[in-house]
Write a structure and sequence with these properties.
Helices cover 43% and strands 12% of the residues. The strands form two sheets. A six-stranded parallel sheet has the order 2-3-4-5-6-7. A three-stranded parallel sheet has the order 8-1-9. It is α/β, with parallel strands linked by helices and 354 residues long. The chain has one domain (7-345): Aldolase class I (TIM Barrel). Bound molecules: S-adenosyl-L-homocysteine.
């Protein structure tokens, strides 16, 4: 079930007459569906190679000030073993669109990249049959998504980034398109994945009208998971450089507020959705993830990547949690969840459609 809001209602909520009433309503709805549960997802950032050049992203191909890494299968399985011991029952493999794992250029044929990625997924699935495998590795052909599903992946995170073609084009190079991004999301859904869409709040040039476009798109897609966080600049990206030069856009406080309001609106519109309180929220404000939980988020994604590569997965400047061991990260988040008034649960945490 989804709840219909008029565009006027959406805009009024985003402009925020009263945060407290909005957050209380979101919290009420979340408790109705999920109680005080907060689901854990162990995030493994397994490669920072990327063939794309998104104008906002720190691991874009054009960033030469970054040393690149790729974890091998044994290292990834080691992360999963550590995570399993810490109670994780979902592993999220996220990375850039690494050419080493790429699908065949026009779909159809199995590529070496498909084989490598399928092999990793199948090995995790075999060793941890009671765990969910989530992938977040960008745009691929339908055939490739199908193979990964058959290898054992069941969830896929692919933020649509901007449903408006006009805004999408100012954030991405010409060879990327919102049409292909949407095609991927509908293919994934059709194959049977639980699908996550989402966007960055306060991206340069983004207006409330663009956010309405995002809400309309998600009303159509009905994503199982929704990932949103504030846009944060990275100094070695085109947008990071230009926003430093002209200081346009929302300031930190405004971005935090708008992200929290959008989170609450999403919870009200999609009562069943799994919505993480993201690392970007924790980066923009030390208390950001607690505030996110209170505004309707019900997932946290502690980092399980080996400590020595964490700094190299720098999507934006000053990303938090890069210096910690996995166990520290887990207990830090547990404390935060408890202090916000919720409870970590360690089951597999599938989406609850009624
Ligand atoms: N290659 C994968 C994973 C991308 S990184 C994919 O295409 O889905 C995961 C998310 O980080 C992106 O979807 C984007 O929304 C977010 N991100 C990237 N750069 C960011 C920045 N500068 N500020 C905030 N979030 C950012």
């Amino acid at each position: 079930m989804t709840i219909k809001l008029s565009d006027l209602d959406k805009l009024q909520l985003l402009r925020g007459a009263s945060d407290e009433a909005l957050f209380a309503e979101a919290d009420r709805i979340r408790r109705e569906v999920y109680g005080d549960a907060v689901y854990l997802r162990g995030l493994i950032e397994f490669t920072n190679y990327c063939r794309n050049d998104c104008y906002y992203c720190g691991i874009r191909k054009g960033n030469r000030n970054l040393s690149r890494y790729r974890l091998d299968k044994e290292t990834i399985l080691g992360c999963c073993r550590e995570g399993y011991g810490l109670g994780y029952r979902t592993f999220v493999l996220q990375g850039g669109e690494d050419p080493y794992f790429a699908d065949a250029p026009h779909g159809g044929a199995v590529s070496d990249g498909d084989r490598r990625l399928c092999d990793i997924v199948a090995s995790i699935h075999e060793e941890f049959p009671d765990c969910a495998i989530t992938l977040s590795v960008g745009e691929r052909s339908r055939e490739s998504y199908q193979r990964l599903f058959e290898a054992g992946a069941r969830r896929y995170l692919l933020r649509h980034e901007a449903a408006s073609g006009e805004l999408y084009r100012t954030l991405h190079p010409a060879e990327m398109s919102i049409e292909n991004r949407k095609r991927c999301l509908y293919d994934l859904k059709d194959i049977g994945y639980q699908v996550g869409a989402g966007l960055m709040v306060g991206a340069p040039g983004q207006t409330l009208t663009h956010l309405l476009d995002d809400l309309h798109f998600m009303e159509d897609l009905k994503p199982d998971m929704i990932g949103i966080g504030p846009y944060l600049r990275h100094a070695d990206t085109p947008l990071g450089k230009s926003s430093a030069a002209c200081a346009q856009g929302l300031d930190k406080e405004e971005k935090l507020k708008l992200t929290l309001r959008l989170l609450a609106v999403l919870r009200i519109m999609f009562p069943y959705a799994l919505i993480p309180s993201t690392t970007a929220l924790g980066t923009i404000d030390p208390n950001g993830r607690e505030l996110g939980l209170k505004a309707g988020a019900n997932v946290v994604m502690p980092n399980l990547s080996p400590a020595e590569v964490r700094e190299q997965y720098e999507l934006y400047d000053n990303k938090i949690c890069t210096g910690e061991e996995s166990a520290q990260c887990r207990s830090c988040l547990e404390q935060r969840v408890m202090s916000a008034g919720y409870r970590i649960v360690t089951d597999i945490g599938d989406v609850k459609h009624e």
